[in-house]
Amino acid sequence: MSVRACVLLLCLILAACVGPSRKPARSRWTPPVETPERFRACVAAMRAEGSQVDALPDRRFDNGCSATSSVKLVAIGIPVTNLGAVKCGLALPFARWVRNDVQGQAARWLGGYVTKIESFGSFACRPVNNQAGNRLSEHGRANAIDIAAFVLKDGRRITVKQGWNGGDERVRGFLRSLHKAACGRFAVVLGPDANALHADHFHFDMGNGPYCR
């Protein structure tokens, strides 16, 4: 065997022993096909985990917008303002984020308890970034939620706009930890580092992903 062949064989052996140097990427997420069975199972799972939700009738509009397989979030642990119809496939991980991540990180970083979450809404029949000519936003499918602020029991109000790059490192840590946790739950997560249009809120959706910025 030539020296070159020996070197190549040795490299292959070492690569097999050491394994890949990078962690495997998250698998590509595509929204599942909606069926009545999946919707009923999703609603049942939310209720089993303690959420109070009302199943909503499907709505479709001539301009391509829709609110199908959606629920109204009645109670998910913390009141969330301004939410309308939310597709159940988004509502389920959102309720988990609210109950587990928001309260846990508030206690860790701020020594406090969140009593209200302020949102910019869920369903809105509009194109991406509200720019004419863009494709339909996931908001137009009731498949996105925008989160702007958190109100604590002691009266503090933490906003994404002022807190993300603000002077309080605890607030920065709180918001970044929530953003990071969201990236493990939603297909797409956008925040202030994504672009100027998201400087004042977190955007979560269950469209095609994963994408976290």
UniProtKB/TrEMBL annotation:
Signal sequence: where? 1-16
State the name under which the record lists this protein: Extensin family protein
Q: Which domain of life is it from?
A: Bacteria
Pfam families named among the record's database cross-references: Extensin-like_C
Q: What sequence ranges are listed for the domain Extensin-like C-terminal? A: 41-213
- Species assigned in the record: Sphingomonas montanisoli
Q: Mark the transmembrane ranges.
A: none
* Keyword list, A-Z: Signal
